Design the sequence.
């Protein structure tokens, strides 16, 4: 990709186009990625291992896609046309993901989609760098619109789930009330399912898997969906009763009979709502597909970014081979090596934090905390990590501030701030699991992403030659989105997650101190390696 015509000053029209490009790019991803785990585990009924394989399949595609995409962008095709083609194909694939109800179709589509979509993340960076005059001054305000797009997409999905998949069962709008479900689930669940086929569909896959695991047949229990829902409602009601008992033991006032019944009804309602929300998450894939088609058309109107013309013609090396020859040099060597464990740390955050934060909020016993979480859900919707949006908000602030600090602090200090933030966040999660410190840890996401991932892409761009920059960006994206996710997903769930899991005999759940202490020490180790190995002064390669 050429940068020979880099302007002295970035025009307003170019800034607008690049900002809208970033908005759409990350809205496409942000629509479905935060809901993928609960969608597959809950609605599709995939096992944890199958869910992990689906995510790994997308990451495997992300490993191979950058080699081809970078080669095409640096050697053969205009980047904006390559982006348009990729997003058109991606829109079709992500729509098909919503309809794939089996593990094999979904894992295959995930792999192909990762191959097509993952390279576009770094290509949008490359096309931006090719048309801005000053990386430090211009890229942050442009890239921040990607975060805005992610948030807006998440809010739209959350509001959809809040309005269409979160029924109030206090009355009889669904044929039964939540009080009736809590009091006698065996009697009233069949009525609920008969009058609301969507509820049956929401729990069908999970019920089938549960029946297979427990070796339960219809001859033993009749309708397995009824038996499955009854089991979940009884457990939810029992958990609510246990929570009330704990509060009383800790000196809290005993609830009245009406309050106790309301709590049990709420527990039953949450089971039905969770199932309907899992089903409603199909909307996220459809919305992502629509955004992908819009992006495909819009890319054709982006600034023209042809491949770089260099001497040598047919004698030129493959772009990725030349990129490897530059990546083996400092500071890129240290950056690429540290990016793998950093991406693994990211997986701990994205996989476990939503449930962790929800659990903290639910056990505070504070009416103010409950009201705060409810207010957040009214604004941001439900089913998308609610309080985790605080992290996206802080990301906007950090990206907006990067232009003011990039030159004065330098790349190394910014990268170290990012790594220190990773360590502090995991330390707060592990050793201070109360609402305010945990929410502060969530807010540190802005420094984690902005000062490490964002700045790292800037470093890759300014330490590679113009004719292989798209490939180098794709290779770094490969490390973050491909290798790191594959290794990190398995390490976070199958290795550390299994180690930190509390046996059912001891009450079940997760020992979050053990769980989050591992990525904390990983972040500290990365900080020390960066401090020692990354050169204090490194001269960027000329723009073109």
Sequence:
């Amino acid at each position: 990709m050429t940068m020979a015509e880099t302007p002295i000053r970035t025009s307003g029209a170019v800034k607008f186009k690049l900002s809208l490009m970033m908005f759409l790019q990350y809205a496409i991803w942000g629509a479905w990625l935060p809901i993928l785990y609960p969608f597959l585990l809950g609605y599709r009924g995939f096992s944890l291992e199958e869910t992990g394989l689906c995510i790994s399949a997308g990451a495997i595609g992300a490993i191979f896609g950058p080699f081809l995409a970078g080669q095409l962008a640096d050697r053969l095709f205009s980047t904006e046309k390559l982006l348009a083609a990729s997003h058109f194909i991606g829109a079709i694939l992500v729509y098909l993901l919503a309809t794939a109800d089996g593990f094999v179709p979904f894992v295959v589509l995930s792999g192909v989609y990762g191959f097509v979509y993952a390279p576009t993340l770094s290509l949008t960076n490359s096309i931006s760098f090719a048309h801005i005059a000053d990386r430090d001054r211009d890229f942050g305000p442009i890239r921040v619109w990607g975060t805005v797009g992610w948030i807006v997409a998440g809010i739209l999905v959350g509001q959809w789930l809040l309005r269409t998949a979160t029924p109030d069962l206090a009355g009889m709008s669904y044929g039964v009330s939540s009080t009736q479900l809590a009091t006698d689930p065996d009697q009233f669940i069949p009525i609920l399912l008969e009058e609301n086929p969507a509820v049956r569909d929401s729990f069908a896959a999970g019920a089938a898997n549960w029946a297979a695991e427990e070796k339960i047949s219809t001859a033993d229990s009749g309708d397995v969906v009824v038996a499955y829902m009854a089991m979940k409602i009884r457990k939810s009601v029992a958990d609510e009763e246990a929570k009330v008992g704990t509060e009383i033991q800790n000196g809290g006032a005993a609830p009245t009979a009406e309050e106790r019944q309301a709590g049990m009804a709420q527990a039953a309602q949450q089971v039905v709502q969770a199932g309907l929300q899992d089903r409603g998450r199909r909307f996220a894939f459809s919305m992502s597909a629509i955004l992908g088609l819009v992006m495909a058309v819009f890319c054709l109107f982006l600034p023209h970014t042809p491949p770089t013309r260099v001497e040598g013609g047919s004698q030129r090396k493959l772009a990725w081979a030349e990129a490897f020859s530059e990546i083996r040099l400092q500071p890129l060597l240290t950056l690429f090596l540290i990016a793998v464990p950093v991406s693994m740390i990211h997986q701990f955050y994205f996989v476990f934090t939503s449930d962790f934060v929800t659990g903290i909020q639910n056990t505070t016993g504070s009416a103010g905390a409950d009201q705060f979480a409810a207010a957040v859900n009214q604004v941001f919707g439900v089913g998308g990590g609610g309080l985790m949006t605080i992290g996206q908000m802080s990301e906007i602030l950090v990206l907006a501030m990067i232009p003011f600090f990039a030159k004065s602090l330098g790349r190394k200090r910014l990268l170290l701030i990012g790594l220190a933030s990773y360590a502090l966040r995991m330390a707060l999660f592990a050793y201070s699991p109360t609402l305010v410190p945990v929410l502060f840890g969530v807010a540190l996401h802005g420094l984690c992403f902005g000062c490490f991932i964002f700045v790292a892409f800037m470093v890759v761009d300014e330490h590679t030659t113009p004719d292989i920059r798209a490939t180098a960006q794709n290779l770094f994206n490969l490390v973050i989105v491909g290798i790191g996710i594959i290794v990190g997903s398995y390490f976070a769930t199958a290795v550390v997650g299994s180690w930190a899991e509390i046996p059912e005999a001891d009450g079940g759940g997760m020992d979050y101190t053990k769980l989050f202490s591992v990525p904390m020490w990983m972040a500290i180790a990365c900080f020390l390696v960066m401090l020692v190995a990354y050169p204090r002064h490194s001269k960027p390669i000329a723009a073109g």
